[in-house]
Amino acid sequence: MPGLPSWADEDTPVFVISIAAEFSGMHAQTLRSYDRIGLVRPGRASGGGRRYSVRDIALLREVQRLSQEEGVNLAGIKRIIELEREVDQLTDRLAEVTDELARTQARLQALTDQGGRRGDLLPVRRTQSVVVWQPGRRAAGPPADEPPVDDDGAQ
């Protein structure tokens, strides 16, 4: 995209609204409306002005395509965008968990290899327990209808 500084990536908010409107083929007022309803959330400059990234401009183009070519209304477009963001987040999380699983399997294999030679590993059965707390009597003393109990349990 022309005009992108060398230090900026696709998520860096660098374009003022007039440039973003030109690149996306929309009117600046349309971009303001989309910001108000949450379709596209541009960054903000220190003075409060909107700054759009390359990713924002690509999203604006997709909004326009969905609206004009597919006939999707703005509420539908907003939901599509939300779902795509959620899928991206879940995909990222899946990659993290997959990497963590691979590291754990590698550590387990290394421990198993060591245990096979030295015999110092034992299988451990892991269980989960649930503790349910139920409110009981106050610790201040027995109720009035019960006699006091000594420390040895005698009455």
From TrEMBL:
Domain HTH merR-type, first and last residues per copy: 14-83
Source organism, top-level taxon: Bacteria
Disordered, as annotated region: 133-155
Protein's organism: Actinomycetospora endophytica
Cross-referenced SMART domains: HTH_MERR (SM00422)
Protein name: Helix-turn-helix transcriptional regulator
Entry coiled-coil feature ranges: 80-114
Alphabetic keyword roster: Coiled coil, DNA-binding
InterPro entries, A to Z: DNA-bd_dom_put_sf, MerR-type_HTH_dom, MerR_fam
